[in-house]
Design a protein that fits this description.
Largest sheet: 2 strands, antiparallel
Radius of gyration: 22 Å
Strand order of the largest sheet: 1-2
Bound molecules: fe (ii) ion
Order of helices and strands: HHHHHHHHHHHEEHHH
């Protein structure tokens, strides 16, 4: 138990001081006092984020052995490896809030923790790898650029580094898409099909609409979030529509229309029933993803055991030297 965890939670003077610091744009650091609710909200958000990075390796990892050239294979391996790094980095950040990483990973394996709904969809063709980089990493950039200004220092700093790598991910994806879109008619059909399948799930990545997002107001007040889900979703749509036009691909929404007054692309209705089904564990690949993570965890047991044995040996050695 750290000082932070045992500090009086509802001391109004402390809360007022904390909120004044937030209002003044100061960042909150691990040893600073914070309301328990702020700490819990951050653990929830950051651990979901870390889990998403790790589970996100699975759909793309499936295509490493089938990448169409050495160059594509190298950049896909690098990207998937980056995602592992993002996950580990954010787990570290979460640990600064006084929670143990093993506990968070156990929640993921037990199926009690959430991760991004998008990774429960299958990668059916090579074009999916391009479209994921373009849409999913593109959406991650929109989200994470704003999180880089979050009030909690370790999270904000992690986002700055991660966003640099996400930019590379998005570019490698868009380059795959542009190549296929300018290829044979079969390649073009393959990439259009991938766009059709990934567009709506990518819009769902930003989470429920503001009207149904119970945590948003509090997170905005404490500057953990700086923009609402709907604002971020709109920004993603505005950025992506011209990118699709540039490679002559169509986004699967007959209601997409430019609104000159608001300067936004308005879009059709999101199928929230589908989103809720995926969140409840009933998406196309939820079971497969968790089974893959559990297997990886079990297969890695010997590494954890070896590391613990080594640490114990080192401790014994140091103790005997000190004696
Ligand atoms: Fe990432
Ligand atoms: Fe990424």
């Amino acid at each position: 138990m750290t000082q932070t965890r045992t500090a009086p939670q509802d001391d109004p003077a402390k809360v007022a001081e904390f909120e004044a610091r937030i209002a003044a744009g100061q960042s909150i650091e691990p040893k600073d006092w914070m309301p328990e609710r702020y700490r819990r909200q951050l653990i929830r958000m950051m651990s979901q984020h870390a889990h998403s990075e790790i589970v996100g390796m699975l759909p793309e990892g499936n295509w490493i052995t089938r990448a169409p050239s050495l160059r594509r294979k190298i950049s896909l391996i690098a990207k998937v490896q980056d995602e592992a790094g993002h996950g580990l980095y954010i787990y570290c950040g979460t640990e600064t809030l006084g929670v143990d990483r093993a506990e968070l990973i156990q929640q993921l394996l037990d199926g009690t923790a959430k991760y991004s709904s998008i990774f429960n969809y299958p990668t059916l063709s090579w074009a999916d790898i391009g479209v994921i980089g373009w849409f999913v990493d593109g959406a991650a950039i929109v989200n994470q650029t704003v999180l880089a200004k979050a009030s909690y220092g370790p999270y904000a700093r992690a986002m700055i580094r991660i966003c640099k790598e996400e930019n590379f991910h998005k570019r490698q994806g868009y380059e795959i898409v542009a190549t296929l879109a300018n290829g044979t008619s079969a390649q073009k059909a393959m990439v259009q099909d991938a766009v059709n399948r990934w567009w709506w799930p990518s819009l769902m990545m930003f989470g429920p609409s503001d009207a149904n997002s119970p945590n948003t107001a509090e997170l905005i007040k404490w500057k953990v979030k700086r923009r609402t889900n709907d604002e971020l979703r709109q920004r993603f749509v505005n950025l992506t529509v011209p990118q699709a036009a540039a490679v002559n691909l169509t986004l699967p929404d007959p209601d997409l229309a430019y609104d000159t007054e608001s300067e936004n692309w308005s879009f059709g209705r999101i199928d929230w029933d589908e989103f809720n089904q995926v969140l409840r564990g009933n998406g196309p690949c939820n079971r497969e993803r968790l089974a893959a993570r559990r297997k990886a965890h079990d297969d890695g047991a010997w590494v954890r055991e070896a590391a613990s044995a080594y640490a114990a040996k080192q401790r014994a050695k140091q103790a005997s030297e000190a004696a």
